[in-house]
Automatic annotation (TrEMBL):
Family to which the UniProt record says this protein belongs: Belongs to the class-III pyridoxal-phosphate-dependent aminotransferase family.
Cross-referenced PANTHER family: GLUTAMATE-1-SEMIALDEHYDE 2,1-AMINOMUTASE (PTHR43713), GLUTAMATE-1-SEMIALDEHYDE 2,1-AMINOMUTASE 1, CHLOROPLASTIC-RELATED (PTHR43713:SF3)
Gene Ontology MF: a single term: pyridoxal phosphate binding
The name this protein goes by in its record: Glutamate-1-semialdehyde 2,1-aminomutase 2
Species the sequence originates in: Tepidimonas thermarum
Length: 462
């Protein structure tokens, strides 16, 4: 569709009164149609903080928590029996679909043979070989979560470089890693405490530097004094709104890290959606270390971090030079037999060309449908895509950095989109307008989302 055939862009905001009234209607609709979830939410208030086993589970715009009865493929069923086309997919944990058969079978078989021994399972050699083949780095270690893996990698990086500082991008997400839970002061560029973080007493902002994403000048300035052990980065920002790298950014950033002796660590927990082997393998990047969690073993708690032979040699020297005792790296359940069984099955049956072909087929249809609807109505909104992942952004251009996202943020509109679609059988992630397609996502799931999106735009008067 050519731009000169489209209606003029309409940049007027949705009136706050109309949006508030629509949100009130949707909240009432949810309560009326979800009595079982409402009752479970009331019961859980007695024994769980904020009424949920993890307080993040309340970070959705619905008036009470949606309780899940089952999940399979690209759908989940709630306690009230409603079925949803799931484009959240456990915020990437179920990127390959809920309970993929190969992984479910491997878990069931291993559960009868032992869960954890704090010794390597007999399949460990095969899994190491498969990790190297799939993701391109020769040496590996396991963790329970990507948060753990990132913590361990930063500890290794400081140990082998002798440098105290780490560097992250403004708007990054690396899980519950204290070093990364800091903010950038937009006025001075200084790293400051993040006010939302509870119980912080250590001066992490004194040892972490934060620069804007896609800003090579700021990156070089932060690296110039030779004090940065590692740049820990997502290949694209994914949890602050989807922000892709500018053309040529990563090639230049990788060269800067090498010039200044800083280790490049890519956290691909969310960017596994880019293609087989993740963003780095798809775009021929060469990180020193590489991290993935969530979906890497099909959704069972497991994470991995890989590294080059040179980094492995430096790790060995650092460990051998240290006194005996706890290194601060590793947990008792790490690399348990159940995780290895799931990981082996996922590497063989999920991280494949066939999986990504199916994921991208659904993502192509979804992207086309969203853009066609925006263009037809002349709406100045953007769909930003990264493989099987995309985000609807209420801004007229693809964001370049976190400040871009902040300037255009419309949290009330996002919340209304989420609840409106949820009431019509479509689940998005609770943050922003991110949508993820799995191999099980089919034409009917995409059509359900697009039909609900049409209804939402009509309800907004668009």
């Amino acid at each position: 569709m050519m731009r000169d055939t489209l209606p003029p862009l309409r940049d007027e905001p949705v009136p706050a009164e109309r949006l508030a009234a629509l949100q009130a209607q949707e909240r009432e609709r949810f309560l009326t149609t979800h009595p079982a979830s409402h009752a479970l939410a009331a019961r859980c208030q007695h024994h769980y903080l904020f009424g949920v086993p993890l307080h993040w589970m309340r970070d959705w715009p619905n008036p009470v928590t949606l309780f899940v009865r089952s999940a399979q493929g690209a759908e989940l069923t709630c306690a009230d029996g409603h079925r949803y086309a799931d484009f959240c997919l456990g915020d990437t944990g179920a990127m390959f679909g809920h309970s993929p058969p190969a992984v479910a079978q491997a878990i069931a078989a291993q559960a009868a043979q032992g869960l954890t021994c704090m010794l390597p399972d007999a399949r460990a050699a095969r899994v190491g070989e498969a990790l190297a083949e799939r993701f391109g780095l020769p040496c590996w270690q396991l963790a329970m979560t990507a948060s753990d893996a990132n913590r361990f990698v930063l500890r290794w990086a400081r140990a082998i470089t002798g440098r105290p500082q780490v560097l992250v991008f403004d708007g990054c997400y690396h899980g519950a890693v204290d070093d990364t839970l800091v903010d950038r002061d937009p006025a001075t560029g200084a790293t400051v405490r993040r006010r939302s973080v509870l119980g912080g007493v250590h001066d992490h902002h004194a040892y972490t530097r934060v620069v804007p994403f896609n800003d090579l000048a700021a990156l070089e300035q932060a690296l110039a004094d030779g004090q940065v052990a590692a740049l820990l980065a997502e290949p694209a920002l994914t949890n602050f709104g989807l922000v892709p790298p500018q053309p040529g950014f990563w090639a230049a950033a990788q060269a800067l890290c090498r010039r200044h002796g800083t280790l490049l660590v890519l956290d691909e927990t969310h960017t596994l959606s880019s293609g087989v082997g993740g963003y780095a393998r798809t775009h021929r990047l060469q990180p020193d270390l590489w991290v993935a969690g969530k979906a890497v073993a099909g959704g069972l708690p497991c994470a991995v971090y890989g590294f080059t032979a040179d980094v492995a040699a430096r790790m060995r020297r650092a460990k051998e030079a240290a006194p005996d005792g706890h290194s601060g790296i590793g947990t008792t359940l790490t690399a348990n037999a159940l995780a290895l069984a799931a990981l082996e099955a996922a590497l063989a049956y999920l991280h494949t060309d066939d999986s990504y072909t199916a994921m991208n087929r659904a993502a192509d249809a979804l992207e086309h449908g969203l853009l066609e609807r925006l263009h037809r109505r002349g709406l100045p909104w953007t769909v930003t895509r990264l493989g099987a992942r995309m985000e609807l952004q209420f801004m007229p251009h693809t964001p370049r950095n976190a400040d871009d996202v902040r300037r255009h943020a419309q949290p009330a509109l996002e919340a209304n989109l989420h609840l409106f679609l949820l009431n019509r059988g479509v689940l998005l992630t609770p943050f922003h307008g991110m949508m993820l397609c799995s191999p099980a996502t089919g034409e009917a799931h995409v059509a359900r989302l697009l039909d609900a999106f049409d209804a939402w735009l009509a309800a907004l008067g668009r």
